[in-house]
Amino acid sequence: MKRSRFPFIVTGAVLVFFYLPILILIVDSFNSSRFGGAWRGFSLKWYARLFHEPAIWEAARNTLLIALLVTFVSLVLGTASALALHRFFKSRLQRFHYTLVYTPLVVPEILMGISLLMAFVAAGVKLGMLTIILAHVTFCVSYVALIVLGRLQDFDFSIVEAARDLGASSWTAAWRVVLPMLAPGLAAAGLIAFTLSVDDFVITFFVAGPGATTLPIRVYSMIKHGATPLINALSTLLLALTFTTVLVSQRLSASGALKSRTME
Amino acid sequence: MPDRRRRVAAVTRLRRRGQELLLTAPGVFWLSLFFLVPTALVFILAFRPADPFGGIGRGWTLATLRALADPQYLAIAWRTLWVSFTATVICMLLAVPTGYAVARAPMRRRNLLLMLVIVPFWTSFLIRVFAWKSILHPEGLIKKVLVLAGLVDANASLLYHLGAVILVTVYAFLPFAILPIYAAAEKFDYRLIEAARDLGARPFAAFRKVFLPGVRQGLITAVLVVFIPALGSYVVPDIVGGTGSELLGNKIAQRVFVDRNLPLAGGLSIVLTLAVLTPLLAVLTLRRRKGRAVSRDAGGQP
Fold first, then answer.
1. DSSP code for B56
2. Cβ contact B134:B168 at 8 Å
3. CB proximity B42 to A under 8 Å
4. CA distances from B282 to A104, B95, B221, B279, B289 (A)
């Protein structure tokens, strides 16, 4: 039977639509012209200038520091949640727990940003790095919990029983059997938490306060103040980082991660 | 000795309960403190006055509710719904054929296509929106092409209006719509379409009456992951939109960053919350009614 070519044509168009703007941005970052659109020759001067912007590097350092801490805390909290949801899934407490973990995923970012800001202001907490970290952990925990939960559901627990039968204590079984089997899931979850933290703009913007600047906030203020060629160069560097991350995460088998991110 | 066995069982049960609490407490504590309580707080603080230093004052007031009755907010709420709806429809029109095509591609090409859909999904949202700003810019490429083709006037602006906001919203959320449809289309049994064709259905009828109901779950998820974030969108209208294309998200941000009226920002986010809850509840009700219909059919009761 002959299949319609229409879906494949749409797919081609969609991919062009996805990549054309990114491609133009990358090309423009090597354009010596101040404005995009007209090619004035190849140049690396925007990259060079990027290295003389201390504000960008400070923002990058903050971003990295925040993301590392957030990844660690949300991995610990999220894995505990996933274990609880998996082992005791029938109890009423776990039904509440699941709703609590799931709901932040369907709440628009701006609502989370404003509610955290109001809570911090009401509690008299000074806005800065600390509030950014608290906010990031809050939206990362849900992703981590659902990814690890997905992993646990594919798990063959008879292996753990076998280990126990062979004389392993429950700690040894957890450390030597469960953890290694869970490792790819933890890596995928950690990667997502890290990426979400590095990328987040809206929630960070609300809870950052004047002192603490992250990379997305820096990029946003550059967009607002029209430093176009510099953002092109910075974006290209970040895109290269993203492509590498995607490749690595594909290796770690992204299917579990993907499922949770699309609310399946 | 049944008494001793019972005691052992009770101890095991208690230990199990203790383990459950130990594993559940950290997550529940964190999410209650930083998600549940702040969300509830927004509803309460909307009835507090704003203090002159940008904080939240003492006492209670209905000033926020009165301010929300301003017709400008009604118009903006309506525009937000309209933009999100249009963007969702366009996303679905593109995502359904794409999800189908990726699911039906031969294995090796499928992985490549999937990867190409996932990359934008991981790419910084801000950068993806910014890329469009420089393309649509008066000196940008698309403008030049369109002027050369005689499609737009040289003085027309492609940026700073509602059309640009819808275009970039579609661009930003389309990958999120494709993935759940792909996931459903991958599991679909395509022999059903062949059967429908053999029984005389035209290709489009087979697609509409067999394929679409078969991937319903994916379609619902796709609609929600576009429509809900679009309702709360702030970055897109802020960067490529103008004053005539502000959405609820912009108004919330302005109340926070421009005139620092947190209670009014809270009031506006309550409006947004209600707008988000409506489609969610609609889906839940629909699903429940469908579930009841199915069980009724299965039971053979009228």
1. B
2. no
3. yes
4. 19, 22, 13, 5, 11
What is the nearest CA distance from A225 to chain B, expressed in angstroms?
A: 11
Running DSSP on this structure, what letter comes out for residue B171?
A: H
Cα–Cα distances in Å, from B94 out to B47, B101, B114, B177? Answer: 43, 11, 15, 9
B75-127 pLDDT tens trace: 999 999 999 999 999 999 999 999 999 999 998 889 889 888 988 878 888 99
Question: What residues does A31 pair with on adjacent strands?
Answer: A42
Residue-wise pLDDT tens digits, A55-93: 899 999 999 999 999 999 999 999 999 999 998 888 889
Domain residues of chain B, as ranges?
63-285
Tell me, what amino acid is at A260? S
Phi-psi category of residue A63: left, alpha or beta, with phi > 0 → left and psi -120 to 50 → alpha: alpha
What average pLDDT does this structure show over B228-256? 91
User: Residues B9, B15, B20, B21: is their CA dihedral positive or negative?
Assistant: positive
Rg (C-alpha) for chain A, rounded Å, is 22
Task: Identify the closest residue of chain A to B17 by CA–CA distance.
Answer: A88
B127 touches chain A (CB under 8 A): yes
Write the CB contacts of B67 (distance below 8 Å, at least 6 apart in sequence).
B73, B264, B267
Interchain CB contact of B134 with A (< 8 Å): yes
Q: Does the CB of B252 have a partner CB in chain A at under 8 Å?
A: yes
d(C-alpha A145, C-alpha A97), whole Å: 11
Helix axes B2-31, A92-106, angle to 10 degrees: 20
- The ipTM, to two decimals, is 0.86
Residues 90-119 of chain A with CB under 8 A from chain B are 91, 93-94, 96-97, 100-101, 103-104, 106-112, 114-119
Of A7, A36, A87, the CB nearest to B134: A36
Second CATH level (architecture) for the domain A54-261: Orthogonal Bundle (1.10)
Task: Work out the minimum CA distance from A243 to partner chain B, whole angstroms.
Answer: 7
Tell which phi-psi region holds residue A124, choosing left (phi > 0), alpha (psi between -120 and 50) or beta.
left
Domain spans, chain A:
1-43, 54-261
- At the topology level of CATH, where does B63-285 sit? MetI-like fold (1.10.3720)
Taking alpha carbons only, the member of A101, A181, A188 closest to residue A146 is A101
Q: Which residues on chain B are in Cβ contact (under 8 Å) with A202?
A: 234-235
pTM of the model: 0.87
- Does B121 sit within 8 Å of A261, measured CB to CB? yes
Q: How far is Cα A126 from Cα A107, in angstroms, rounded to an integer?
A: 25
The residues in B 70-89 lying below 8 A from A, measured between CB atoms, are none
